[in-house]
Inverse folding.
């Protein structure tokens, strides 16, 4: 693109408008989760016994599996964007499809985890630790679902006659998807791991 | 696309490297959370566990921000959207935990 005013890119940062908007949204998202993490830390420090006994009930193995699934999905998302930019439609569809599958995998594991809790009579109102556990992982799961909706839309469109050729849009969605992975990177140690067994 | 990215082969290699590092660091987080600190350390042992867990998470977060989310190539101005909220997080947590009742 020649120099001069480009309508596709914001003049100061030179990034596409959509991407800049996504970064502004992500900044507000960091603050959204900050509130939960901040409150969680304060409550933990005043209820050490309760928090360490309650955290011992969580299934750490499933959380580890979900961490691997989300990191894998971040990689396939990045690779799908890379292939779309190269015009490599086949691999774009393959990696985007794998990303959606990882999203489903994550939600299935999450469902198994929640239903195990419910069958052990553990609910969001059981105690303050589980309130935060269900609130934080629940909001995170909603974010995963929210990311999968436009992803599925792009995936289906890629199979139509017109195809799907909007790398910047996929890149913008990618920013969001990596952020969702990032939130889990913190949820995993904070909720599941930093309570050493007594 | 800001047009400053290196060629796709270099990008592919760095994605694979970062994803592998993220997998290894996840396993490391798990190992570090095992009960290896002597009981006699008491509260200091707990603090050590938390510090290691969070330190690894922060390293992982910056790998995702800089490589997967392209902060290393995009205009430096974009970094404000990451660092300002993180700064506010520390202010909030410090205020609630240290200055609070």
């Amino acid at each position: 693109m020649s120099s001069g005013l480009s309508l596709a890119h914001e003049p100061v940062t030179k990034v596409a408008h959509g991407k800049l908007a996504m970064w502004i949204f992500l900044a507000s998202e960091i603050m959204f989760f900050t509130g939960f993490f901040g409150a969680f830390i304060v409550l933990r420090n005043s209820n050490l016994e309760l928090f360490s006994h309650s955290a011992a009930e969580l299934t750490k193995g499933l959380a580890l599996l979900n961490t691997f699934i989300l990191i894998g999905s971040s990689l396939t998302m990045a690779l799908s964007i890379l292939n779309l930019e190269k015009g490599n439609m086949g691999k774009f569809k393959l990696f985007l499809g794998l990303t959606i599958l990882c999203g489903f995998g994550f939600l299935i594991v999450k469902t198994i985890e929640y239903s195990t809790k419910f069958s052990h009579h553990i609910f969001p109102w059981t105690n303050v630790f589980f309130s935060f556990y269900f609130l934080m992982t629940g909001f995170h799961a909603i974010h995963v679902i929210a990311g999968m909706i436009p992803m599925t839309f792009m995936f289906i469109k890629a199979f139509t006659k017109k195809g799907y050729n909007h790398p910047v849009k996929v890149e913008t969605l990618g920013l969001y998807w990596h952020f969702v992975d990032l939130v889990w990177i913190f949820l995993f140690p904070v909720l599941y791991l930093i309570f050493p067994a007594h | 696309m800001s047009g400053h990215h290196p060629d796709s082969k270099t990008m592919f290699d760095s994605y694979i490297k970062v994803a592998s590092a993220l997998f290894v660091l996840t396993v490391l987080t798990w190992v570090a959370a095992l009960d290896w600190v002597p009981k006699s350390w008491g509260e200091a042992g707990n603090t050590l566990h938390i510090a290691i867990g969070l330190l690894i998470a922060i390293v992982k977060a910056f790998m995702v921000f800089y490589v997967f989310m392209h902060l290393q190539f995009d205009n430096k101005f974009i970094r404000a959207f990451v660092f300002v909220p993180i700064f506010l997080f520390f202010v909030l947590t410090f205020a609630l935990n240290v200055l609070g009742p």
Notes: Residues 34-193 of chain A form a domain with the Four Helix Bundle (Hemerythrin (Met), subunit A) fold (CATH 1.20.120.80). The longest helix of chain A spans residues 89-119.
